[in-house]
Amino acid sequence: MAYGDIAEYVGTGGPRQVGRVMATFGGGVAWWRVIHADGTPPTCHEGQALSHYLTEGTPLRSARAPVRVDMPRARWHPS
Question: What are the residues facing 68 on neighbouring strands?
Fold first, then answer.
């Protein structure tokens, strides 16, 4: 999910608030699964995120810099 997707799902705040929570408390969760709307992983964590994406079989648009997740195929849509 993108930062904005999470904000919409939670129903309060926006992408920046989600980013702040992830920066402060995100170490204990699968942080690499929260990405920018364009499919890029969190800044300065591309290498670590790519390792997780390849292990999990995440659909990618690019595995080279800039790493990009294929959002239409990978996005989680809560029901």
Answer: 62
* 46: Cβ contacts below 8 Å, ≥ 6 apart: 40, 65, 66, 67
**Looking at the whole model, is its pTM more than 0.70?**
yes
Task: Specify the pLDDT at position 25.
Answer: 86
What is the band of 27 on the pLDDT scale with cuts at 50, 70, 90? confident
Omega into 66 within 30° of 0, i.e. cis? yes
At residue 35, the 3 state secondary structure works out as: strand
The bridge status of strand 60-62 relative to strand 68-69 is antiparallel
**What Cα–Cα distance (Å) separates residue 44 from each residue in 2, 7, 39, 59?**
17, 22, 14, 20
In the numeric block, the tokens 């709307």 are attached to 37
* pLDDT score of 29: 86
